[in-house]
Design a protein that fits this description.
heterodimer, A: mainly alpha, 8 helices, 59% helix, B: Rna Polymerase Sigma Factor, Chain: A, Arc Repressor Mutant, subunit A, 1% strand, globular
Chain lengths: 165, 185
């Protein structure tokens, strides 16, 4: 399913209006004239994103998506076209749009939803039975999961590896 | 003739060197980004003169405030947001709401559309703009660049410092949200 076709089936874009000739060249000349008359002094100091927070959100989102796939249910948004790499890239790019409280709320709803909890528990147990040290979602609270992710400051690549194992 | 492509980091280095290096970086940005920014503004303002004023003001602000760029987004995204703020401020001053003008509709419905008779080109354009306004900033940018400017993901990727996979995901989600918004009406 190509998203662009979905809109192209319904909508058509009219041809763009003509612009004055050399408009962009003249704009550039005007702007450079302005720049020469107003020299720049200060230096740019870059801010760095905290990696652990990105990692935590990505891991938790993958956990939710993973649980959804175990349930084999259809969600309102279709992730059919998205692979794990795309989800991770989306989270990394849109990290500023994620709100911690909202995220915890989503985690909570996902993990404690009454009619599906049993399925989660049984599936989680079977998944974790393969790991060296038995870990069960039954004994973990959402706070513990988030705390673990934060404390370990996992990068996205490390998380992917962990989840794939 | 200078055909060199610069990354954001290289441009920041040039800006930090000051003088003619900073001017080189600024010249590069104006040349590379003006066209996309122009059409992004014009979709809202609907006329050339207003668009030109906003774009020039946005570039002047970019030059003046480049030191406040923190690298939280790509340079393009940062400048795009300056343009958007300039546009909204100007429309507010003129007390006209975006997409209220009826000339130059952004889109029209195709005869094959199941809602063809329901909306005029102006009405469906207004609805589309409202749906875009509901999107998070980055999704809106990706949607505009892909749908209206028909930019390839590879080019968008270098412009927004984002992987192609992330952009495809953003676009896919944006289209779904826009569909939902329009279908709800």
């Amino acid at each position: 399913m190509e998203p662009i076709n979905e809109l192209s089936d319904q909508l058509q874009k009219p041809k763009r209006p003509e612009l004055p000739s050399n408009y962009f060249d003249e704009l550039t000349s005007n702007m450079m004239e302005h720049a020469k008359q107003h020299p720049k002094a200060k230096k740019i100091t870059l801010y760095r994103k905290p990696l652990f927070w990105i990692g935590s959100v990505a891991a938790s989102l993958l956990l939710i998506l993973g649980i959804n796939s175990i349930w084999n249910t259809t969600s309102e948004l279709s992730f059919d076209n998205l692979n794990q790499e795309e989800v991770l890239a989306y989270v990394e790019e849109n990290i500023d749009d994620f709100d911690e409280e909202l995220f915890i709320e989503v985690m909570n709803e996902t993990l404690v939803e009454s009619d599906t909890t049993k399925k989660v528990k049984s599936n989680a147990t079977s998944v974790n039975s393969k790991s060296k040290e038995a870990v069960s979602f039954e004994t973990l609270t959402r706070e513990e999961i988030l705390e673990y992710l934060n404390e370990n400051e996992l990068s996205i690549e490390e998380l992917e590896e962990t989840i794939e194992q | 003739m200078n055909k060199q492509k610069y990354t954001d980091n290289e441009l920041i280095d040039l800006f930090n060197m000051g003088n003619t290096s900073a001017e080189t970086a600024f010249n590069y940005l104006v040349k590379e980004y003006s066209q996309v920014l122009y059409w992004s503004i014009r979709r809202i303002t609907k006329d050339h003169e207003t668009t030109n004023d906003i774009l020039q003001n946005a570039w002047i602000k970019t030059w003046k405030n480049i030191a406040s760029f923190e690298g939280k987004s790509s340079l393009f995204t940062w400048i795009y947001q300056i343009c958007k703020n300039e546009t909204l401020n100007l429309l507010k001053k003129e007390q006209r709401h975006k997409s209220e003008q009826l000339d130059e509709p952004m889109v029209q419905l195709l005869p094959s559309s199941n809602i063809y008779n329901k909306y005029s080109p102006e009405e469906i354009s207004k609805l589309l703009q409202q749906a875009i306004d509901e999107l998070p900033e980055k999704q809106a940018i990706v949607f505009n660049l892909k749908y209206f400017d028909e930019m390839k993901y590879a080019e968008m990727s270098s412009l927004l410092n984002t992987s192609e996979g992330g952009l495809k995901a953003s676009y896919s989600i944006a289209v779904q949200k826009i569909h939902s918004y329009i279908e709800k009406l």
